Amino acid sequence: QVQLVESGGGLVQPGGSLRLSCAGSRTFFSGYDMGWFRQAPGKQRELVATITISSIATYVDSVKGRFTISRDNAKNTVYLQMNTLKPEDTAVYYCNRISRPWDWGQGTQVTVSS
Hints:
Helix content is 0%, strand content 48%. The strands form two sheets. The protein has a six-stranded mixed beta sheet, with no helix packed on it. It has a four-stranded antiparallel beta sheet with strand order 1-3-8-7, with no helix packed on it. It has no helices and ten strands. It is globular and about 40 Å long. The model has no long low-confidence stretch (mean pLDDT 95). By secondary structure, the chain is an all-beta fold.
């Protein structure tokens, strides 16, 4: 069974930065389009960034210009660099493949607050 482990979250002030990591076991990310998702309290999970097998990235409008998704296939890891964070970015962040998601990991909490 594929296991996804997200890390790198925390408490940060508005305008700050965080770098999230997602590592996978029992699979190889290199063969899949991957994405970062987030779920805020009381809201549905939303897709915020995707990266294709060929490393083409796309973003939801609310994070464009602030977030950068990347991948290191040798390390079987996907990253999300988040800059200029806003309170509305507060959520639990998850990674998964875009098509036919695996079982979800625990996610990593990001809290943006002064």
